[in-house]
């Protein structure tokens, strides 16, 4: 039951006439030499840790840099006001994604899904679905297996690290994982799940990793929210019967090639993009990194 591609996941699900999440579970059983029950419970613990992190969000805490904290609470208040155009499920997704990203920046316990920098995407999409649609925990755990399978394929054939693939490898991968899981929750079959993942990842291709001051805060936290919303949009297109012209595995391969083509300045080094803007320089000065950022700003301007 081993798989190395999204097409493998779809093929195995269809050949054995089992849901895609069970393909991933059985592969885990085979790889780690555990029982089906043990595998499922391990994933349940992951999901419960996500829920706990969401429940323990504290809007009064600010990160050491001062760049992160309190925005999740602002989104919560705006959603509660009834004025949000993205009300209901989507508003909740945006809120929870920011809250989780802020919790990471404030050194609270989160689940790397697939990385700490992208930790808000999957929890936001799934916890919001569980709450909004009154779904059972078991179904949410099944969806997490779907996400894990997609993430494993991306990690094997491309990358989930910003340092090697840019933010498309982090937020993009998380968004594809969440999209596939959401499509499953809404009744999508294996092909639908693959299309949802393909849409989500296509929408994030080329996304740079350019954290201000080298911290996973700006623009990372807000990108979690964008990635989560992208996942929901992608799942809805797939559920509508729309098919990706480019298969998921080819999208993953494209992400790998694009990541390799990105200059080092845009792969987590904070030597380009948003990290060398005037505002970033001022933030760094406030944090006592004046000379470092000034040098990077000059180099960035010379290369433009």
Would you count the extended β strands for me? 0
Q: Report the principal-axis shape.
A: globular
Poorly predicted runs are none
The percent range for strand residues is under 5%
Family: Belongs to the iron-sulfur dependent L-serine dehydratase family.
Keywords: 4Fe-4S, Gluconeogenesis, Iron, Iron-sulfur, Lyase, Metal-binding
Pathway: Carbohydrate biosynthesis; gluconeogenesis
InterPro entries: Fe-S_L-Ser, Ser_deHydtase-like_asu, Ser_deHydtase_asu
What does this entry look like structurally?
Pathway: Carbohydrate biosynthesis; gluconeogenesis. Its EC number is 4.3.1.17. GO terms for molecular function: 4 iron, 4 sulfur cluster binding; L-serine ammonia-lyase activity; metal ion binding. One of its GO terms (biological process) is gluconeogenesis. With about 300 residues, this protein is an all-alpha fold. The chain folds into two domains: about 200 residues, no CATH class; about 35 residues, no CATH class. Helix content is about 65%, strand content about 0%. It has 14 helices and no strands.
Task: Describe the secondary structure blueprint for this structure.
Layout: H1 6-16, H2 20-32, H3 36-55, H4 71-81, H5 88-105, H6 121-133, H7 137-157, H8 162-165, H9 171-185, H10 190-204, H11 220-239, H12 248-261, H13 278-286, H14 290-303
GO biological process, one term: gluconeogenesis
Domain Serine dehydratase-like alpha subunit: 15-275
Pfam families: SDH_alpha
Essential attributes:
single chain; 304 residues; mainly alpha; 2 domains; 14 helices; gluconeogenesis; 4Fe-4S; L-serine ammonia-lyase activity
């Amino acid at each position: 039951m081993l798989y190395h591609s999204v097409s493998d996941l779809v093929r195995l699900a269809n050949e054995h006439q089992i849901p895609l999440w069970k393909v991933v579970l059985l592969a885990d059983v085979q790889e780690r030499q555990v029982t089906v029950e043990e595998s499922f419970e391990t994933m349940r613990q992951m999901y419960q840790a996500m829920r706990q992190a969401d429940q323990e969000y504290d809007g009064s805490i600010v990160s050491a840099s001062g760049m992160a904290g309190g925005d999740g609470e602002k989104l919560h208040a705006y959603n509660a006001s009834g004025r949000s155009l993205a009300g209901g499920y989507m508003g909740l997704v945006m809120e929870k994604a920011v809250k989780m990203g802020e919790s990471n920046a404030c050194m609270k316990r989160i689940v790397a899904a697939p990385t700490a920098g992208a930790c808000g995407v999957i929890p936001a999409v799934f916890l919001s679905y569980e709450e909004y649609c009154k779904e059972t925990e078991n179904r949410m755990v099944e969806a997490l297996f779907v996400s894990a399978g997609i993430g494993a394929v991306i990690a094997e054939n491309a990358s989930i690290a910003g340092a090697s693939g840019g933010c498309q490898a982090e937020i993009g991968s998380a968004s594809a994982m969440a999209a596939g899981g959401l499509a499953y929750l809404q009744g999508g079959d294996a092909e639908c799940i693959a299309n949802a993942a393909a849409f989500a990842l296509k929408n994030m291709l080329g996304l740079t990793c350019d954290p201000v001051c080298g911290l996973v805060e700006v623009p990372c936290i807000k990108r979690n929210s964008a990635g989560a919303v992208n996942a929901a949009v992608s799942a809805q297109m797939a559920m509508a019967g729309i098919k990706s012209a480019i298969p998921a595995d080819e999208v993953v391969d494209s992400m790998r090639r694009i990541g390799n083509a990105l200059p080092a300045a845009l792969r987590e080094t904070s030597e380009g993009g948003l990290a060398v803007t005037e505002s970033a320089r001022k933030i760094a000065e406030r944090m006592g990194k004046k000379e470092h950022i000034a040098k990077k700003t000059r180099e960035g301007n010379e290369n433009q």
